[in-house]
Amino acid sequence: MIEAEILFFTCYGAMTFWALMSCLYLLLRRNNVFATDITSSLRLRRWMAATCASVAVSHVWWMLLYYGQADGSDPAGRILLCRVLDVLFNLSVIFYTMLVMLQDRRRPLWYAVVYVALGLAMLLSEYLLGPQASWLSILLSVVMVLYVIITLVVGVRQYGRWLRDNYADLEHKEVWQTYLVMSAFLPSTFFYSFLNVDRVFDFLLEVVNIPLFFILLWRVETLQDLGEPVVASVEEPLDDAATESASTTQFAKIELMLQQNCIDTQYYLQHDLSLTHLAKNIGTNNTYLSRYFAYKGITYNTYINTLRIGRRTVVRKRIQKLQYLQRGLQTDQWADGQVVDESARIAVVYVFVTSRCDG
């Protein structure tokens, strides 16, 4: 029994120390360690630091108010106080940090306020009404879980559409890996705060949360900062009362600019090309360009990747043609059996090489 207690508190202290060190690292170090070539969001780093701090402080108040009390009295009041503190300063911060990872917009804090209100209502109903109102606590807990799931699912779908409308390369931008980790981390914290469990369950949660916390920290550093300066509009946005013919003329002008400054120059091959960068390069603004793609019934991501696929197809065909010519030169014959003299060989290779360079 004593050995088990020592093992539990050792793990408990390790988790507290790891959370505290992670908080200091995120606040004091600006450059990434896990992914040096990625610039992570400063706002996300600060919220993740707040999550780390809340986890560390949560361990402190549970130790002082619950685990460290050995007087044998009824701990119901102390447990309630710890759970209230968890809802106010721990679970709410973790929940909002998940929303901050969605960089398409700044979501208001009332998302977390609703979460806190549901949690406090569940705790107070359980404490004030007693076991006879357990059905109310269960109902509120179900509502709380559904609220989190619906909010995050809707947010991820909005973020995904925004990514595909504004970015051609989605590497280091998608958040599904992070949500897989937090989908395990948040429920474990929820169980830890709201359920009456034994020491074995507490120990298992601590063991599981340490690697989850490490993975979460790694994912925050590998999630690219998508905040970009707003590009000044070259022209005034279209008026809502603009005629259909005027809109068609404007879209035709944008199509010509895309042809001249994106397709002809192969600007679409630029890595990590965003809608903002493309709009600036062709001489328009995000509003016009977004409306153009909506008019065409495609997303920005689809447009750029269609051009890239077309380019790869052309290159692949040229490579196949080169291989065919090499086989013909090696056998001194074309497919129809005619012999190729030395001057023809040189001319064929010259034409092919120059065409590849021009393309």
Description:
The protein is an all-alpha fold and 359 residues long. The chain has 3 domains: 2-222, Rhopdopsin 7-helix transmembrane proteins; 243-297; 313-359, no CATH class. 73% of the residues lie in helices and 0% in strands. It has 12 helices and no strands. Helix 3 (76-100) packs antiparallel against helix 6, helix 4 runs antiparallel to helix 5 and helix 11 packs antiparallel against helix 12 (342-358). The longest helix has 33 residues, at 134-166. The chain is elongated, with a radius of gyration of 30 Å.
Write a brief structural summary.
With 359 residues, the protein is mainly α.
Descriptive tags:
12 helices, Rhopdopsin 7-helix transmembrane proteins, 359 residues, single chain
| CA gyration radius, whole angstroms | 30 Å
Ends distance: 75 Å
Helix count, per DSSP? Answer: 12
Q: Name the helix and strand elements from N-terminus to C-terminus, one letter apiece.
A: HHHHHHHHHHHH
Give the class from helix and strand content and strand pairing. Answer: mainly alpha
Percent of residues in helices? over 70%
Residue runs with pLDDT of under 50 for 5 or more positions: 229-239, 333-340
Main sheet?
A: none
Question: Mean pLDDT, nearest integer?
Answer: 78
Number of strands: 0
CATH topology of the largest domain: Rhopdopsin 7-helix transmembrane proteins
> What percentage of amino acids are in beta strands?
under 5%
